[in-house]
Amino acid sequence: MAGEGDSEPGKSFKLLGFLDVKNVPCARDSVLYGSLGSLVMGLGHFLATSRVRRSCDVAVGGYICIMLGYWFYCRYNLAQQRIRQRMLKEGMKNRVLFEGSYLDPEKEQTGSERSDS
Amino acid sequence: MANHSQLTLQDAASPIMEELVQFHDHAMMVALAICSLVLYLLTLVLSEKLSSSTVDAQAIELVWTILPAAVLIALALPSLRILYLMDEVNEPDLTLKAIGHQWYWSYEYTDFKDLTFDSYMTPTTDLPLGHFRLLEVDHRVIVPTESTVRVIVTADDVLHSWAVPSLGVKTDAIPGRLNQTSFLANRVGVFYGQCSEICGANHSFMPIVVESVPLANFESWSSLTSS
């Protein structure tokens, strides 16, 4: 059957109706760490100060900061991984193409070792 | 192509579209953070009495100036990066002309041999089982995989627009003007698009189908079709 394979609609879970945490890389972890961090910060602040309102503010602020902070960190690592994957793919393709030919860098190295000895 | 209830972007088939999908995810995460904050503030405001003795609020005014600026910078930087990336012209391996008519597309491959064909939508009554209604065409655009393709888009009569969401391409087809775009299909597959500029009664019935095949298959198709 012609067409590309998309993920099934039933497999997505959208927070606030627009952020698909199941299929977007790093989204689920960001939200979970944000929630956990917010709980810890809010509860900790409350235990230290007994101020409910301010503790809620701290919890929400912590949620946003931790969520976004982890998001940027995770996406940066993901981008680096993608670049490495692309370089590896290109390197493997070039190796297959040039192996044994005069363009093979390994052959040049072996040749120079022989000439040195 | 999109599923029946799909609201999200289609799976990317080109590096530019991959970047756009990633930027979309990034923008949605920022939007989630802002919505969470707004919902919380709304809850606070609705649970307070309607009176205030505040005369000045320097700190909060500083916060609600600097924070939106930071958010805009966080969105603008990746956006501008992709914008300039989309405008890069890497030496294309193939040039394809797409000409919009009422109501079909015609394509010309004139790099090596003169190959011209029209691409009409397959009527629903003639659609084979399992094919997609209002999306299939009689002659697909065949392009080689992992090759930069330059598309020159124009129109013969009225405004049209050549769009393929999976490839991240949408270019207006304007009579008397040549618009250029390029894409690189990084995997084999069939990618669907539809005319994206209102052009008359059958505007919804002039789809675009791009089929990306390995280079050897493209060459054999090209030689078979030209002869």
By DSSP, the count of extended strands of chain B is 10
Major sheet attributes of chain A: 2 strands, antiparallel
**Roughly what is the average pLDDT of chain B, rounded to an integer?**
92
Q: Helix/strand/pairing class of chain A, anyone?
A: mainly alpha
Shape of chain A, please? elongated
How is the largest sheet of chain A built, in terms of strand order? 1-2
Q: What's the arrangement of strands in the largest beta sheet of chain B?
A: 3-2-1-5-8
Describe the structure in brief.
Chain A: Keywords: Membrane, Mitochondrion, Mitochondrion inner membrane, Transmembrane, Transmembrane helix. The complex is a heterodimer of chains A (117) and B (227). Chain A has 117 residues and is mainly alpha-helical.
Description:
The complex is a heterodimer of chains A (117) and B (227). In chain A, 70% of the residues lie in helices and 3% in strands. Chain A has helices at residues 27-49, 52-98, 105-116; strands at 14-15, 19-20. Chain A has 117 residues and is mostly helical. Chain A has three helices and two strands; from the N terminus they run E-E-H-H-H. Chain A has a domain at 25-97. In chain A, helix 1 (27-49) runs antiparallel to helix 2 (52-98). In chain A, strands 1-2 form a two-stranded antiparallel ribbon. Chain B has 227 residues and is an alpha+beta fold. Chain B is 32% helix and 26% strand. Chain B has helices at residues 15-46, 58-86, 215-226, and strands spanning 94-101, 104-109, 115-119, 141-144, 148-155, 160-164, 169-173, 179-184, 189-194, 207-213. In chain B, strands 3-2-1-5-8 form a five-stranded mixed beta sheet. Chain B starts with 14 loop residues before the first helix and ends with a helix. Chains A and B meet through strand 2, helix 1 and helix 2 of A and helix 1 and strand 9 of B. Chain B: Its main location: mitochondrion. Chain B: It is a multi-pass membrane protein. Chain B: Belongs to the cytochrome c oxidase subunit 2 family.
